[in-house]
Amino acid sequence: MILLLNAANRAAFPALMDDMFRARHEVLVEMKGWEELRRPDGRESDALDRPDALYLLAVEKGRVLGGVRFTGTERPTLAAGILPELFEDEPVLGPDVLEMSRLFSRAETGPGDDLSPLLGEMMAAGAELALIIGARGWLTIADLGLAQGLLAWGAHLEPLGLPRRTRDGAMMAVMTHASGRSARMLRKARRLTRPALFWADDPVTPPRAWAEILGLDAAEPSWIPPGDATPLQRAHMTPWRLAELSRGGRPP
Question: Which domains, ranges and CATH numbers included, belong to the chain?
Answer without folding.
Answer: 2-246 (3.40.630.30)
